[in-house]
Amino acid sequence: MTDVILAKAKQGRELSRGELVALLSITDAAELQALYDCAYFLKEQYVGKIAYFRGIIECSNLCIKDCYYCGIRKSNTNVERFQMDEDEIFKEAVWAYEAEYGSCVIQSGERRDEEYIAMIERVVGRIKEATKGRLGITLSLGEQTEETYRRWRAVGAHRYLLRIETTNPELYAKIHPKDHSLEERKECLASLRRTGYQVGTGVMMGLPGQTMEDLANDILFLKEIDIDMVGMGPYIPHSGTPMGKEIPPYTDEQKRVALQLGLKMIAVTRIVLKDINIAAATALQALEYTGREQGLRCGANVIMPNVTETEYRPNYTLYDNKPCTDENSSMCRGCLSGRIEGIGETVGFNEWGDSPHFHKRTKTVSD
Length: 367
Ligand code: 5AD
Ligand code: FES
Hints:
Elements: H1 2-10, H2 17-24, H3 29-46, E1 50-60, H4 86-98, E2 103-108, H5 114-130, E3 136-140, H6 146-154, E4 159-161, H7 169-175, H8 182-194, E5 198-201, E6 204-205, H9 212-224, E7 229-234, H10 242-246, H11 252-273, E8 277-280, H12 282-287, H13 291-297, E9 302-303, H14 329-342, E10 346-347, H15 356-362
Helix pairs in contact: 1-3, 2-9, 3-11, 4-5, 9-11
Residues 324, 327, 331-332, 335-336 line the site of FE2/S2 (inorganic) cluster.
């Protein structure tokens, strides 16, 4: 049955919601392989066999939010909080540039105070200037006002990642406190689009109570808002969170199932959205050592090597078992480059690596 759907997908034809559910529900090994091969075929055709690196700087774990799944939620008192200063962030961005990464991502817990907004504004401007605009700058700093997004855009940030987490309102309400709003999140995504960013979003898969229909709807949402980039990953319990306390650490079998679901979502997203950028989330590697390259084999084309100073890494634990917390940036560079070569792909060094979708959408070259 799914071979008919995959044949349709290979011709670039549109699939129905029911067909997406059928693909996401595959468990048979041969059918799974056919799904992954189809996604890889489309990836090759639309974005090529190049993996782009985005050096991720996790610059602070201070957070005003209290999401029930996240290890750095504000109520988790077992976290040593840290905040890098401007010079530290700048230094790591320059490291990424010198490592020929082409672009960086500045990520942190959410803060909306003027001191923070202004600090980000200054550091983005400094990075832009020091690298003569050659290092792409992505921000992943949560929900902000349109004015804040505009200020950061004006000094040179050009991409923004803000995951929707799930588009099912009931599920969203279950995994967040009452004052966290799905509608506000959607409005932020609209603000980001209006402000001229390349916009990325994504979801967690394998949340308690989440169905294949939910995930198919999530993919259709990504399509509806005409997204340029996707970053999504498997949900992994963190023992210090309300959700993690209800779920014992994953068994090997649960890890296998969670990884498989993560890979299926990447594959089906590639099949539906074709020419966008899709990240192989670090969380895939928390489930299996080769998780991220498996993500590339299933349709992802972006990897985010950690460029955070090793001393801060253990304090940015969003989920248990987060990889690379003992390593340094050079080790991750060597390790990931090797893995990518190992699957017969090349790394897009020194390139921004915008998605073809973004250029098609705007029909201009971004600054
Ligand atoms: N498991 C997987 N991903 C998580 N994130 C936060 N907590 C977890 C978890 N326990 C993801 C969220 C957030 C991103 C920065 O990290 O999707 O948007
Ligand atoms: Fe960090 Fe392999 S990617 S050590």
